[in-house]
Amino acid sequence: MTNPLEKTPGVANVGVDLFVPRLLDAGILVTTREWSPPLQGDAELYRMLFGLNGNDRKVQMLDAANREVVEAMQSADPVLVDVRSAKSVLPELKSPLVLHAGPPLPFEKMTGPAQGALIGVALYEKWASTPEQARAMLERGEIALDSCHHHNAVGPMAGATSGSMPVLVVQDASSGRTAYAILNEGIGAVLRFGAYNDEVQDRLTWFEEEFGPTLSAALRHAGGVPLKPIMSKALLMGDEMHQRNAAASLMFFQALMPHLVATATGDRLLRAVNFLGQTDQFFLNLAMAAGKIIGDAGQAVNGGSIVTAMCRNGVEFGLRVSGLGNSWWTGPVNRPQGMYFAGYGPEDGNPDIGDSAILETIGLGGMALPAAPAVIGFVGSGSFEDAQEIFQRERGIVVGTQPSFQIPTLDGQAALLGIDVRLVVSSGVLPLINTGIAHRVAGIGQIGAGTVSPPLVAFEQAAKALAGTLAP
Prior knowledge:
By secondary structure, the chain is α+β, with helices and mostly antiparallel strands. The chain has helices at residues 20-25, 43-49, 56-75, 86-89, 112-124, 131-139, 198-222, 228-236, 246-263, 266-278, 282-299, 358-361, 373-376, 384-394, 421-427, 456-469; strands at 10-14, 29-33, 78-85, 97-100, 144-147, 153-154, 166-172, 178-182, 225-226, 307-313, 316-321, 329-332, 337-340, 353-354, 398-407, 413-419, 433-438, 446-452.
């Protein structure tokens, strides 16, 4: 046996690094891991959440509700049935109302991309004739704002949704529940990053007058397109459904193409085919609407401690919990960490924004990172081994899996499902979210991609509220 005293020892430091400087001065290798007591050392709260305080019967009921929530989420069956004008399916949008991503937020507190998108909507809807007039109307509150989630909708990045826009209509074949999402605009100057120039306005008008009705006719001819099978196959083909949707977009195009040919002709058909064929991320918005259907299926159980929605508005991160009604539990949003396009850096990036974290809510995106080897390095995790480690760590904060979604690079293991706020706050492990990085100035667009962690405080707030329902 070797004598451990014959070589310089290594030290693992966990938590406070009080002695680390002296160890380093002595030439000793130190590996530091951040750590703090669960729930900030609140032992009483911990006992309440896990049934160690005379409330074991209530906690058993909570666990039973969690199983029901996961089963409901597993059983949800999202189908794209139509594309309609938003105001035809959401009558409240007939008034000057715009939906935005994330928890509710007033215009004056929004970041550049969100404000730019709202200005663009005001111009598109002809509520204002100049950007200056649009901004003034928004600042005076003459255009109402609300969260997409409050209207069964989701929107990427800024999430701006108004009455004249065509929206994807996704229906749960199991319950009839419906969710909505705007169409993906492709790349370049786009409203979701706050651009509102003539190119953006022309595209939105084409969506409204031609592309949306063209998709609607094809979908009605097809009798709808089930989304879960496409998502399942896409995971087997290298998508994780948030940062990468190339395979899913291609399969959706394949499914819809015969019906486009049957219902559209000439230049109208050509323009639709060209746009769909060139937009690798077209399926992202469909996946988000499917995620909303799945999350809402769990929310409908009205019990348990499962996260059913996560979203960001550029200022706050918010989550909903199955047993806490439709309340938002929030905390300051974090900035993504990742890779930037040439010429840009962290100082240019906007804080995290968008409803697309609904995909991590249902176990995809960053929660299924090993499924997409092509983006692992790009989103900042570094290596496939890192992605595996992240997946295994996040296994500890969920109470179930989604058998419909399997990860081939992990020997077909099912995707994770059912993030339990109790497990998050007791372990300190947070869901990893894949995300695009927007420039902080409206209209410049995407400048990178990476990952971001939600603020622990949002989960802690939810856990404290949950503990209040578990008092003996």
